[in-house]
Write a structure and sequence with these properties.
five-stranded parallel beta sheet; about 35% helix; Rossmann fold; homotrimer; about 325 residues; alpha/beta; 9 strands; globular; 9 helices
Chain lengths: ~325, ~325, ~325
């Protein structure tokens, strides 16, 4: 297995089974620090640079919290539009990275443009972690999700995954690459205009992923061990939540998980959602034994601890 | 007395006399750390999460500085509009809190909506501190103010408070609840459209607060031990300070504290203002023995140190 | 020599030769911490307050990274427009500083208005570092640049500086004051509307700076030991980089440094640019032995370490 020390985390394509398990084991060893609400001094010498060209408070804070729990410190920016115009938003990734690499010891980058973290990694003398690049990938989220499932199920093999959402999105890309490393049957459900793109299907075919596409959550819910969700509608961001009365009920029933839908589900099926949600996942489900999205949030910090400790070479 | 460990600080309604004094004592014990410009290691294991749905740099930085002085670390967001649309600004408090509680060990929340920190506290596994909720309350500011007065006067009982400002505002609400726990005579002065609301009067009547309302600062200045001020006019935020020539002189004389007004005040009266100010409090007063707003700023850090150390259970 | 402990760093006017060298020496002693990617505990008791009334991510992060490398912590704001309107953007520097001085132990201020850090220093009980004030000065950048040149050349005396950019800008002001302390010949090149202002020429004449102004980089490149650059055109900030096709080729050839221009340059000449750049400095030059802008970026952290350690009195 390749060492994680000094390595960039850019994509889950080509990420191997044993690399998942290595990160899971390290996560297990570090989890007590977060659970006991402590700070270790594992990374007390290290500085994390957050380079968020787009705001993503959840992803940014999960990385920051992870770094702080490991004793490290954080600097960076949370929205490139808030930087001096022409500063980071406008200039080349190469010029920016030749600054950022001196401000800390690992760079976590969210970028509106697919491939930007890859370009950054080409120039940086420190590891670059992709925190979401346009339509590209979102490897740290999916590592979190796989870790959550592994913790709940004890295995990733032999499971049926039901995936609901926009299949053109980065999280679904990373998840598809990840599933292909395990004995997982994937069922994709999305509105037609959000279905798997032909060129992406070629990729997952080449990886020998066992998958099918269905139209209605009811047609697949009975078999699912894992229900993996993302929104299929976008809120009207011009209105505050309280004014968005029209937003409620926007998700068509065939892409929605409700208490009624869950009555047809397996007793031990679990639901994951990285949030925020629209009405594709109703709050009435939150109190059931199926919901695992709060655990997913906790694991979001633990997995980032595992990643930071690994690429910074303090855990092997 | 109820323990502060693990407790939410949401409102000063029902806050008891001896609870004020407990926080004052802890503040006195922690103040030397801030005065000597040191960091202690009392909270070296702990992370503060700042959840500011509205910017409030003073309140946010006072909490951050307090956490840092105690050896802790900080993560969070300073303006929800800067987060990904739909991220924190749009989603339910429940969903957001089930993330934030994993990013740190205490949440300080400023929200544009009254009651939001209370809602957050319902779901959070960590203490929630209300840093101002809409028209609701601002308990940490008023604890700071009461501590400042107590330090200056040696007591809170037997004092006459003159309150000038918008009586519908959160700070005045928290201050009214606080005054009711002591032998304080309150005199409220505000423009008619900013006077105490009938339902709030019922509340402070029920608390047996001894108060009156007058029209002109000159009618009450001679008796005041404490002059507690807030703006009664709002600046035109669309213009930079230098362009706002028209803003100067906006505050009617009856709500204004000037050198001339202070000539009629008691020799030992003190002025508090949490700032920023318009022209209700003229800079010509800054150099007099009455001004205590800079001490208030220093105490703003010290009181937040006391609160953080208390709710995180390291000081009793 | 005046001690640096407790001192404000506001301007390079009146900064003496031996003060430059003292900061260089301290920088040399601290550089290994940054180079080895460690944190020292020299400033573990100290908090830096960043007061950026305008965003400037590079300058802010260089200071933050420096503080973190020295074991200190950071709080502050990165754009006053993001603070509560009327909070810091609108109020007087005096009122703001009488808050900020309690939030930490040194204030680094960027302000859109010339003279603001000087005004802040008048009121602050802690050192104030000018991180750029309007058209005024940018002393920490130029200290970085002079340190970079000194490291590369072993001396600052007997060198020819070629300065290309907008001579009305703060960096050029600080650099001119700095050059006057050494045996440096300065050649300024700028578009006519960006040339040295008459009142500034009087200042550098009074400092006995040896300088000339020429029209075309080709007329001066052969003599230059140091080529010191800034943009002479501004990007169209309303467009994202990818859309700004029209921006390319905006800089007239006489203010541009290209591979072709560098063929006429001295073998050992070096190019400095604090970035970001437009097309005044072409990427084709990056791979040549002349480029020193990445070293400049690294030194930007090291020089800020030297400044923070010096004004906070832990290095003499």
């Amino acid at each position: 297995m390749r060492s994680f020390a000094g390595r960039d985390i850019l994509s889950l394509k080509g990420f191997e089974r044993n690399e998942f398990f290595r990160l899971f084991e390290i996560a297990d060893r570090l989890a007590p620090i977060a659970r006991d609400r402590k700070r270790s001094d594992l990374l007390k010498d290290k500085t994390l640079v957050t380079a968020f060209y787009q705001p993503s408070t959840r992803t940014r804070l999960a990385h920051e919290a992870a770094m702080l729990r490991l004793g490290g410190v954080v600097t960076g920016f949370s929205d490139a539009k808030m930087t001096r115009a022409g500063d980071f938003y406008q200039e080349s990734i190469k010029d920016t990275v030749h600054m950022l690499e001196y401000y800390g010891d690992v760079i976590v980058m969210r970028h509106f443009k697919q491939g930007a973290p890859q370009e950054a990694a080409k120039w940086a003398s420190v590891p670059v972690i992709n925190a979401g690049d346009g339509w590209g990938e979102h490897p740290t989220q999916v590592l979190t999700d796989m870790y959550t499932i592994w913790k709940e199920k004890g295995t990733l093999d032999g499971l049926n995954f039901l995936l609901i959402g926009d299949m053109r999105m980065r999280t679904m890309h990373s998840m598809s690459y990840a599933m292909a490393q395990f004995d997982i049957n994937a069922t994709y459900i999305s509105p037609p205009e959000m279905s798997l793109l032909p060129e992406f299907k070629e990729e997952i075919d080449a990886l020998n992923l066992n998958y099918r596409e269905v139209d209605h959550v009811k047609d697949a819910i009975a078999d699912a061990d894992v229900i993996y969700m993302e929104p299929v509608v976008q809120p009207d961001y011009t209105k505050a939540r309280d004014e968005r009365s029209g937003d409620v009920g926007l998700t068509p029933a065939q892409y929605q998980v409700t208490l009624d839908v869950m009555k047809k589900a397996r007793q031990d099926s679990i639901i994951l959602h990285s949030l925020p949600r629209m009405d594709e996942l109703l709050p009435e489900v939150d109190g059931t034994r199926h919901a695992r999205y709060w655990e997913e949030a906790f694991n979001g910090v633990v997995m980032r601890m595992s990643l930071l400790a690994s690429v910074l070479g303090v855990m092997e």
